[in-house]
């Protein structure tokens, strides 16, 4: 069925530019020789300024015209007549965006349907604004740390900040990146349709906005990707008023700075906000249901994180309790009252009064109104869309629903921006007939506190269980930032790194880092895991001195593989390389 007139009008109303088209029909799996430009780390492609753009009225003619040299980066009109699009993506957060870019690169004709704002959570209410707040507040913390600065011979006067200015930095960054994402789609010919989408049958989707007759339509697609993301999860008994009791959605606007805030949940979102708030002068109380802070982190790393990120700061905490009842207050007039209940005994144990509460208890998948029964599927008991490892949606009997995929937070496999994007690319590969599976154990994660925490793979606790279950000897290599010249030059020697590996094979099971720029450092390890490199392969790689990367160099060099795997390792390859290079020269 052809796209409705309303859809076309909507595209025109949005000012979406259709880019130059290449050959009218390209094989579905054909690889467009796109020269992708990456600008924000989320697999974004060429900006509109780099790409020739023509108006939508020239689309058909351009599609028949001979292929100009650089036009292959734009979406190809490959829909075979039976469908409006090769691929329709519901939701244009980073997952949907990443999938759309890759699909165009693969020669598919693509539309995204977005019900709220391009960029979704990450760009508008997540990674991006939170990192802006962390950058600004981190600078304040650093410049107010007189002891740290004077140890390097630096003196500063009084350091002040403007709350509204910090908030504006976060807002402006989000809107800039949102604009970049939108232009990056338009410039390669992706149609951006506005509205909430729902399935009306196999390979058919209807979309629209409540109360807007001018927006919406129905489209068909050979394949459909669900990328509808998530929203903050709020436990029962906690009314959100958006002023004194709020989620990260409100907190990122930094509308006020309470003197004392309780943060419910000490996962990475709660921790990052504690970093922002304490740097800007707010006292924090953590309320955590399990017995230790930072559940999910490697225990040893969590202990050091507690020393570096909590103990020396105006932060206290209650663990093993839940906030069973929260009564909102009035800013500056009436406090918020929180009833604390023992997580195990369910007995009320305390009541505290604070100026504000941030609920950071995780994220819930957002699938409202998708009408999954129309494709024979339903969400699981936690609300996620069930998928297999190829991101194919499963029906209520556990069988694959043909031509429907789900990526990102909505499937709950790994609720991080880059995981959503990687899953989107993977789904497109599968759509193009090239079987692909994301190795989630190679996907890094980071918490952007000061200092940062990052990891990839399993924790030491899990690695020990695996060693027992599978009968191998676990190797643990550790190092400290205290021996790193670059970290010491910055007077930032606090931190450690740890690698877990199999002593018999050298397989890397996990790497954990806390310290300066840990979020950037983790990628050498995650790429090694993704490409199947073993410890003995990488321990002979050379790292520039003095750099923080030598922390990882130390980890790799500190590992000792035993038995036959240790022989014939990277040392031999490294020794052979110069001869080859000399011969080639
Ligand atoms: C405070 C905070 C900080 C974070 N920091 C980081 C970080 O530093 N690094 C990191 O990797 N991750 C971070 N995350 C997590 C990250 O934001 C998410 O994992 C990521 O945004 C998920 O991407 P997604 O594409 O699956 O979904 P989303 O980004 O949620 O996008 C889904 C989109 O789908 C749209 N949509 C939903 N339903 C429909 C429908 N029926 N029709 C049309 N459109 C629809 C929504 O409007 C939305 O735009 C953070 C999250 C928060 C809250």
Describe the structure.
The longest helix has 24 residues, at 163-186. Mean pLDDT is 86; it is low at 1-73 and 571-585. Helix 3 (94-105) packs parallel to helix 11. 31% of the residues lie in helices and 23% in strands. The chain contains 17 helices and 23 strands. The strands form five sheets. Strands 1, 2, 3, 4, 5, 6, 17 and 18 form an eight-stranded mixed β-sheet that branches. Strands 8-15-9-10-11 form a five-stranded parallel β-sheet. Strands 19-20-23-22-21 form a five-stranded antiparallel β-sheet, with helices on both faces. The protein has 585 residues and is of the alpha/beta class. Strand 1, helix 3 and strand 2 (110-114) form a beta-alpha-beta unit. The chain has four domains: 41-119 and 181-231 and 364-438, 3-Layer(bba) Sandwich (FAD/NAD(P)-binding domain), CATH 3.50.50.60; 123-170, no CATH class; 243-361, FAD/NAD(P)-binding domain (3-Layer(bba) Sandwich), CATH 3.50.50; 451-576, FAD/NAD-linked reductase, C-terminal dimerisation domain (Enolase-like, domain 1), CATH 3.30.390.30. It binds flavin-adenine dinucleotide. The site of flavin-adenine dinucleotide (FAD) has 39 residues, from helix 3, strand 2, helix 4, helix 5 and strand 4. Keywords: Disulfide bond, FAD, Flavoprotein, NAD, Nucleotide-binding, Oxidoreductase, Redox-active center. The active site is at 545 (proton acceptor). Belongs to the class-I pyridine nucleotide-disulfide oxidoreductase family. Residues 85-424 form the FAD/NAD(P)-binding domain.
